[in-house]
Automatic annotation (TrEMBL):
Pfam families: ROK. PROSITE patterns: ROK (PS01125). InterPro entries: ATPase_NBD, ROK, ROK_cs. It comes from the Bacteria. Belongs to the ROK (NagC/XylR) family. This is Glucokinase.
Amino acid sequence: MNKDYYLVIDIGGTKIRSAIGDNQGHLLKKVKSFTQARAGAKIVINDILEISRQVITLTGIDSVNLKGVSISFGGPVDFAKQKILKSQHVHGWDNLNLPKIFLKEFNLPCVIDNDANLAALGEKTFGAGKKVDSLLYLTISTGIGGGVIIDGKIWHGNHSLAGEIGHNIIERNGPACSCGKKGCLEALASGTALAKNTISFLKKNSQVKTKIKSLVSGSLDNITAITIYQAARQNDQLALKIVDEAIA
């Protein structure tokens, strides 16, 4: 008996991924690429379509067994209208109906939602949340977001903005955020913010000794959140302080 498969896509501010999976949560194959954030949405969409074609070819599944497309987007999505509201990391997404583009390209039904919402649903269906009815899922990467599950279903809230916690102001007159405000949670504790703020600190305080520097061979601009967490695991005091402040 033939299985049904789905094309699944994750669009982030740093990476884009495409995969083929079944309704049991098993992935046959996945392809990823870097997000050309500065190039804008049009270029990124072309890249997504390309890696989607690649992953379909690599799996070699019959097109009749491919039943639909699911898109996870790293930014606010109007779920009812199936439109991206905007992206703080890549320009050109405002009010874009991406499912229409995929319907035209692959002739398959397509649904889009915010990445944290879909991650929360995945955790509820296949992961740590299988035994609970309600949960809160937090995603911390290029930005910060949240997904809320209530009674087994995604809670989108008014204007589909439930869980959009990244742009709550935590520190007045804090670091500038990509949204134009200052002191947002995302500007203080996202992976991007950790790297940016650490680079700035070390450039201004060159005398500070830290394993963060050695992990990038002194090339400060190559520091990422991964670098900081690697140093923290090695008990580096600066890295531990940065992580503690982000968590707090």
